[in-house]
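TICKET: design request
STATUS: open
ATTACHED STRUCTURE:
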């Protein structure tokens, strides 16, 4: 979807909530104001927005961008990021919209049905933003979260969301035209399915006989000798032109069996991985140098960067990978509490002064090449800075930031 630039916005009236007239527009403003405890920067942001300091706004999947005029002659580059929905989440959301004809009619009429948002939320799909999801960014030197310029952008976009609820869908990853096209496909498929006759059934005895003929031997019962390991070759040769060998197919079959075993225990994380994430998962499973090389080539990643992600997966699985790839925006009270705990612990660990720098979900010990990153699972993941300047995952995450620091402290002291 190509970025779009909305037309002129109406000037907001006075008052904190006056930037949005609809309930879904106010939900955007509430998410902004609940994401920080810094009321001063929010107040300055509202003033900047009322004074017209926010330039033309560009909306693209997962982000809103604009130039915001500050105290300097040159405007600052501001953006607010919002996580896009996964493919599975989009399928759920489209099913939710299509379930009631009134949902789409209301959207086309410029309304966001509250029932649609509630149904999507109950299905695990966050359509309207949560406070923890808004991730501001600005080229100004202010370390505030958000700074007054990013806050101004958030307030300014509220009127656009008021006027067109499809903007919320665009921020989540799909614009108006794509959304409508997907809904038309669903309606067409539903009509086709309804017109097709139901398939003829098969007698139960015949179905069972066919299954029994293909079934694997029954596993040994407890107390009896274990069955011999499965050593037969794959049933078919690798497809021509794939570059796969019989050993490659056997490795893929073993990987599939291991994933199936995890699914039986209730671990469904592997069901929702992207191709990039699955490549990292395979590399982290000890696939060997040759496969690692092919995975790097096929993903287009740099070998060192891919190796860092592989290590992040080994220490934290999908969560560890997300911590390595994308900075999060936790509540300021969480970061302040961790900083206080670390400062107290460092007084017992070293006599030298240590500076703790906070940026988003990252606490960096300046001069010690140590960084702790808070993950979405509320665990602290320790990182060490190598000679090349890159930060490498160095230990599994821990709920206690002091314990996470202790796990890597000795490495730097040596």
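STATUS: resolved
RESOLUTION: sequence designed for all positions
ATTACHED SEQUENCE:
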């Amino acid at each position: 979807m190509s970025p779009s630039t909305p037309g002129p916005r109406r000037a907001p009236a006075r008052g904190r909530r006056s930037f949005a007239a609809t309930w879904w527009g106010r939900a955007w403003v509430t998410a902004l104001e609940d994401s920080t405890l810094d009321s001063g920067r929010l107040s300055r942001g509202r003033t900047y927005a009322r004074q017209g300091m926010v330039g033309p706004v560009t909306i693209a999947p997962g982000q809103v961008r604009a130039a915001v005029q500050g105290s300097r002659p040159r405007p600052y580059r501001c953006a607010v990021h919002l996580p896009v929905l996964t493919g599975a989440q989009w399928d759920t959301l489209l099913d939710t919209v299509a379930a009631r004809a009134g949902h789409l009619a209301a959207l086309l009429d410029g309304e966001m049905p509250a029932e649609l948002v509630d149904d999507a939320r109950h299905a695990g799909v966050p359509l309207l933003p949560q406070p923890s999801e808004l991730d501001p960014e600005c080229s100004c030197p202010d370390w505030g979260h958000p700074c007054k310029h990013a806050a101004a952008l958030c307030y300014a976009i509220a009127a656009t969301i008021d006027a067109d609820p499809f903007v919320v869908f665009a921020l989540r990853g799909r614009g108006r035209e794509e959304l409508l096209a997907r809904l038309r496909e669903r309606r067409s498929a539903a009509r086709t399915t309804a017109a097709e006759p139901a398939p003829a059934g098969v007698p139960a005895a015949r179905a069972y006989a066919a299954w029994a003929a293909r079934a694997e031997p029954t596993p040994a019962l407890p107390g009896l000798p274990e069955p011999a390991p499965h050593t037969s070759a794959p049933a078919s040769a690798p497809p021509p032109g794939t570059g796969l060998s019989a050993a490659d197919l056997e490795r893929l079959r073993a990987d599939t069996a291991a994933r199936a075993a995890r699914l039986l225990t209730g671990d469904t994380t592997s069901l929702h991985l992207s191709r990039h994430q699955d490549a990292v998962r395979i590399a982290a499973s000890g696939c060997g140098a040759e496969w690692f090389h092919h995975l790097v080539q096929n993903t287009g990643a740099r070998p060192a960067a891919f190796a860092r992600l592989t290590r992040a997966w080994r220490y934290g699985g999908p969560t560890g990978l997300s911590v390595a790839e994308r900075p999060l925006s936790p509540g300021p009270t969480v970061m302040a509490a961790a900083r206080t705990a670390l400062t107290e612990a460092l007084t017992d660990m070293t006599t030298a002064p240590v500076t703790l720098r906070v940026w988003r979900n990252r606490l960096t010990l300046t001069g010690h090449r140590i960084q702790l990153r808070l993950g979405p699972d509320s665990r602290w993941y320790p990182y060490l800075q190598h000679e090349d300047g890159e930060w490498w995952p160095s230990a599994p995450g821990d709920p206690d930031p002091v314990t996470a620091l202790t796990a890597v402290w000795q490495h730097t002291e040596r």
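CLOSING REMARK: The chain has 15 helices and nine strands. The longest helix spans residues 303-325.
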